[in-house]
Amino acid sequence: MVKYYENKTIFHFTWDQVVQGFWKRYPNPESKHVLSEDTIHREIKENKLFSTRLLTKTNRVPKWGERFIGSPIVKIIEESIVDLEKKTLITYTRNIGYSKVMSLVEKVVYRPSDENPSWTVAERSAWVDSQVIGFGRAIQAFGVERFRKNCIKMVRGFNHVLATMFPVTATAHPQTIASTTTAKEKIKDAAKKASDLAKSKAGSLYIPCEPTA
């Protein structure tokens, strides 16, 4: 069964500012794992901006995962739709490498906050799946916990970019780190448990394969 995760983040910047910052969010101090970003398609249709980008990222692979993944570098497809009339930015991302080992599909909707129109809410949903027989649940659990941890870094990095681009707004609202950071320690413990579970299963269920030419 696919693992599902969702959260909500409030950015203390207007929707217009967030959309501008979205295209410039790399590099930032929290994005050293992002190696490159390339726009491969962009068009305006029905007064909406459709974009497709290819991101190259790297992520540390735990010891137990090295037998499944030969390289920590993975390609990510990012599709987005900007609707100026409805004031929504919707993004869809998915990995196109090692998808049988672990696939991650993410949807984020950025819109003006109902609480304060000068703020932007990001509603995030993610689905993690694995097709590794007998090992899928452990990989899914590990993937969800790592994703949660990465969300904290993403928010920090994006807020850094927004604060740099719009310093006056940032000064007016210094509390730019989202509430998701309050769960950092719990997430760290959960990620360790998921990693330990995956490690124990890897040792008992799989024998490393010899590399092919």
Q: Helix tally?
A: 4
User: Major sheet: order of its strands?
Assistant: 1-7-6-5-4-3-2
How much helix is in the residues?
A: 25-40%
Evaluate the radius of gyration.
Answer: 19 Å
Q: What's the shape?
A: globular
Provide the residue-averaged pLDDT.
84
Low-confidence segments, given as residue ranges, are: 176-191, 201-213
Strand-pairing-aware structural class = alpha+beta
The main sheet comes to: 7 strands, antiparallel
Percent strand: 25-35%
SSE arrangement, N to C: EHEEEEEEHHH
How many angstroms separate the termini? 34 Å
Number of strands: 7
Architecture overview:
There is one protein chain. This protein is globular. The chain contains 4 helices and 7 strands, in the order E-H-E-E-E-E-E-E-H-H-H. Strand 6 and strand 7 (120-129) form a beta hairpin. The chain has a 7-stranded antiparallel β-sheet. The chain is an alpha+beta fold and 213 residues long. This is PRELI/MSF1 domain-containing protein. Residues 2-170 form the PRELI/MSF1 domain.
